[in-house]
Amino acid sequence: MNRGQGEIQDRRPPAARDSRVVTALAYVMLFLLGAVQGLIGTFQYSRGPVPLVAILFAAAILITCLLGSFGMRSASGGALPAAGWLIVTIVLSSVSNDGSVIVTDTTAGKWFLFGGALCAAAGAVSAFARWSRVGVGREEGLGRDLR
């Protein structure tokens, strides 16, 4: 069969065709990584030296947001792990119908919830500040007019 007869050819190289799928999967994985960190942290925050483990879980989500933003070179790379972490921890730390809670009102629980939420927000805001048009323009020397 001749190529010009009814056959539609995609002339892009295979890498270019697959790049959108790979990028979308990377964003999904970043969201799931933040959700898994929240899930594990919700059940393990009180292990070891009382506030230390909770602080380490909070620092882990901050580092994940910063590295996700740097690796994807976008603000969404830092915001999606934060969103995954916040959704999971809010749902799991809510009081259930029978009155039980997973994250207790202890020093470690406060450090995990409030410190983790602060670190997740700081990671997301840092990603937006780093990859916004103004931030990118300043790196390239184009931000002088914006001051």
Topology:
Blueprint: H1 14-44, H2 50-72, H3 76-93, H4 107-131, H5 133-139
Helix pairs in contact: 1-2, 1-3, 2-3, 2-4, 3-4
Rg (CA only): 21 Å
Query: What is the terminal-to-terminal distance?
Result: 62 Å
What is the number of independent domains?
A: 1
Q: What is the overall shape?
A: elongated
Q: Find the structural class using helix and strand composition.
A: mainly alpha
Q: Approximately how much beta-strand content do the residues carry?
A: under 5%
Number of strands: 0
Q: Which sheet architecture does the biggest sheet show?
A: none
Write down the oligomeric state: single chain
Q: What does the average pLDDT come to? A: 83
Spans of at least 5 consecutive residues with low confidence: 141-147
Order of helices and strands: HHHHH
- The level of helicity is over 70%
Descriptive labels:
147 residues; mainly alpha; 5 helices; 71% helix; disordered C terminus
Offer a concise description of the structure.
The protein is mainly alpha-helical and 147 residues long.
Q: How would you portray this structure in words?
A:
The protein has 147 residues and is mainly α. The chain has one domain (19-95, 103-134). The chain is 71% helix and 0% strand. The protein contains five helices and no strands. The protein has helices at 14-44, 50-72, 76-93, 107-131, 133-139. Helix 3 runs antiparallel to helix 4 (107-131). The radius of gyration is 21 Å and the shape is elongated.
